UniProtKB/TrEMBL annotation:
Example of a GO biological process term: transmembrane transport
Record-given protein name: Dipeptide ABC transporter ATP-binding protein
Family: Belongs to the ABC transporter superfamily.
Species: Paenibacillus sonchi
Domain ABC transporter stretches: 4-245
Amino acid sequence: DSLLEVRNLKKYYPVNKGFFNKTQAYIKAVDDISFSVRKGETFGLVGESGCGKSTTGRSLLRLIEPTAGEVWFEGRDITKLSMEDMRRQRREMQIVFQDPFSSLDPRNTVQRILEEPMIVHGAGNAKERRAAVERLADVVGLAKAHLQRYPHQFSGGQRQRIGIARALALQPKLIIADEPVSALDVSIQSQVINLMQDLQKEFGLTYIFIAHDLSVVKHICDRVAVMYLGRIVEITGKNKLYDQP
Ligand code: ADP
Ligand code: ADP
């Protein structure tokens, strides 16, 4: 039972070969990949830096417009949606970035940051939003008193909790986690991963978990797709992962 089905996805970035050379060249960042993600699973996307993981993750949400291919989510191809419908669609599909600092507005309190997606999507009135924000803080283990603080007043691990809370604000079905723990100390990494696993159980979430390092994903992923130079070279199930040294 699949939640997401990616068919022949491509993303070619045009590259500038210089002013006089008019031949168009492309970087084939994502070069014809297909995979499907089952409801409730954690699907890993791994591979060395530059192999196309982030481009894939962003293309699925159309934060980057794919060059070709189809992305089926719950029975419809969302690459065909208008941008307005796509923005609405993103209630169901959220992304968590490696460094939440870069995506958390430094001028806003955490309260405001967590409220923002609900305001943008017209979810609830002010009172309901406040209650929802307190629930979110609770769910990710953030003290209520901290809601009045600003992003720079938190450690990396706490900021990632804020990033995760914001991604959860609209009760999505799918979360694309793009190297969510890569910038964190190893001891903090496992805390964030444990949190993600708890949230998955509690809310029945489906994850796409992007990492350059197999060691991070192999404990939490049900299946892992290995990317190399824009292609998926292998999709491996959990049992196989544990066999590897
Ligand atoms: P990964 O997430 O696996 O590190 P990326 O998806 O970031 O890989 O990048 C894949 C390839 O696309 C790399 O060669 C990268 O240099 C190139 N690339 C990424 N973003 C752009 C862009 N905006 N313009 C041109 N090339 C890009
Ligand atoms: P802005 O908020 O000014 O649009 P951002 O860099 O914060 O710029 O976001 C760029 C795009 O990514 C926007 O369309 C925004 O809605 C979307 N976006 C930001 N954060 C998330 C998230 N956690 N999940 C899904 N989409 C997001």
